[in-house]
Amino acid sequence: MTAQTAYDRARAEDRAALVGYLPAGFPTVDGAVEAAKTMVDAGCDVIEIGLPYTDPMMDGPVIQDAVHQALVGGVRVADVFRTVEAVAATGVPTLVMTYWNPVDHYGVDAFARDLAGAGGAGLITPDLGPEEGGDWLEASEAHGLDRVFLVALSSTDERIESITAACRGFVYAASLMGVTGARTAVDTGAPRLVERTRAIIGKRAPDAGGTLPVGLGLGVGNGAQAAEVARFADGVIVGSAFVRRLLDAPDLATGLAGLRALTEELAEGVRKGR
Hints:
Keywords: Amino-acid biosynthesis, Aromatic amino acid biosynthesis, Lyase, Tryptophan biosynthesis. The active site is at 48 (proton acceptor), 59 (proton acceptor). The chain has 12 helices and 9 strands. It is α/β, with parallel strands linked by helices.
């Protein structure tokens, strides 16, 4: 199942999709699988599995802490694929969010092959644009994978055009200038970024109605913010708030209960937004 399938299903229900992120291997490999399944059961429509990396330049302190713990615990790329396979078996589109270096080191076509073999839907690549991603464009076509690139508040219309033209699955709109992390308020430029992105998609494919969804991420941490974003975006992407529930928990069972409660709150929020 592609990510767009989940977005289309949410749109048919007159709501935004809820997209949740967790890094593989945190708090353990099996714990991450259980956590992601809990999020699916509680209302996430799409799951992003982070590939732990030693230089997470875009990630804030919460995700950096979790990724560090995963690396210290010995997580490997094979564990990422195992996590994807287990989560994708729930029927929810499961993508890997990763910096490009680990994919390049693994071998682009081999990574795409093994991700597809695990049932993964595609890749989100925060530090790779389509101009530098020729090998990935080819590999994703060959293996039928989504490729999700990021647009930002600073992106020109020309840049948004080139990025969205290469996207498949959805477009990731980053609403903050800076690293990831839950915020007390959604950036005031976020609605305009989504509006600009949709307009450019629509001009390129007017006959298709501009159907490529736009998900907004970086900063959402509660149901009220999810409802606010759901009023103007096709998807609400949440990462740090989920990770924080596990970081702050004294044990996995408590963490899973916190994840379930937060997911249910956010899932209610994306429905209230419409």
